[in-house]
Amino acid sequence: MSGILIEIKNLTLTLSNTKILENINLTVEPGKIHCLVGPNGGGKTSLLKSILGQVPYEGEIFISYEKSKIIGYVPQYLDFEKTLPITVEDFLAIIYQKKPCFLGISRKYKKTVDELLRKMGMYEKRKRLVGNLSGGERQRLLLAQAIYPEPDLLILDEPFTGIDVLGEEYFKSVINNLKNKGITILWIHHNLKQVIEMADTVTCIKKEIQFSGDPKKVLDNDKILTVFS
Ligand SMILES: Nc1ncnc2c1ncn2[C@@H]1O[C@H](COP(=O)(O)OP(=O)(O)O)[C@@H](O)[C@H]1O
Ligand SMILES: [Mg+2]
C-alpha cells in the first residue's frame, strides 16, 4: 500500500474577505477513490488548492505517507499564455529534465515522453503548440503529466471536461489501475452516476460539508436536489 492519507481538521478558507470554506473536517483514506461533488462555486477546487498549499487556509491539513509523497495533479483550468511557443512534447519534457527544452529532449526521457504520448493518444500531435490544442486534447496532456512518475496521490479536478467517450473510458481504466495499486485518488466529478459506479466515498461540499459517505448510500435523489438546487 503506497497511498497517501490526508486528514483535514477545522479548515476554513477566506479569500477577498469572503468565506469560501468553513469548518471542513475530512479524512481521505489511502488507496481509495474519493469523489468531491457539489454545486458550482461550492468550494471544491478551493479545497484541492488548500491541500496543495496554494491558498492561505486556517486549520490543519496532515498528509501522511509511507515511502514517497509524489502528488499528481490535473487542474480544472490550465492558466496558460496561448501563444507561448511550447509544444506538446516540450510540455512533458520540462517536467522531467533539467536542461532547457529548447536544447532538445534529453535522451534519458525521450522514451518516457514518447510512451506517455502514445498512451494518451497524443503522439501524432507532439509537435503542436499546447495553446492550439482542443479542450479534450489539453485534458489528455494534463492527465499524461499527472501519471508519470507514478503518484502516491492523484488529484483530479473535473478531468473529463471536453474529453470524448473513448478518452473518458481510457482514463477511467487508468484511474482504476492506479487505485488497484493502492494509490489515493481525490477527484472532483459532476457525473453522479459515475461517482456511484467508481467512488469508495463521496463528499458533497457547499461551503461546508453537506454529507459524506458511501455513494451508493448517500447519493439519493432528495439529497441531491436539496444540495444542487
Ligand atoms: N482568489 C479568489 N478570491 C475570491 N474568491 C474566490 C477566489 N477563488 C475562488 N473564489 C470564489 O470561491 C468560490 C468557490 O470557488 P471554487 O472553489 O472554484 O468552487 P467549485 O470548484 O466548487 O466550483 C466561488 O464563489 C469563487 O468565486
Ligand atoms: Mg471547480
Tell me what the structure shows:
The chain is α/β, with parallel strands linked by helices and 229 residues long. It has helices at 44-51, 88-96, 107-119, 135-147, 165-180, 192-198, 215-218, 221-228; strands at residues 5-15, 18-28, 33-37, 58-64, 71-74, 153-157, 184-188, 201-206, 208-213. It has two domains: 1-70 and 153-229, Rossmann fold (3-Layer(aba) Sandwich); 80-148, no CATH class. It contains eight helices and nine strands. The protein is globular. The N and C termini lie far apart (39 Å). The structure holds adenosine-5'-diphosphate and magnesium ion (MG). Magnesium ion binds at residues 44-45, 76, 157.
Provide a brief overview of the structure.
The protein has 229 residues and is an alpha/beta fold. It contains eight helices and nine strands.
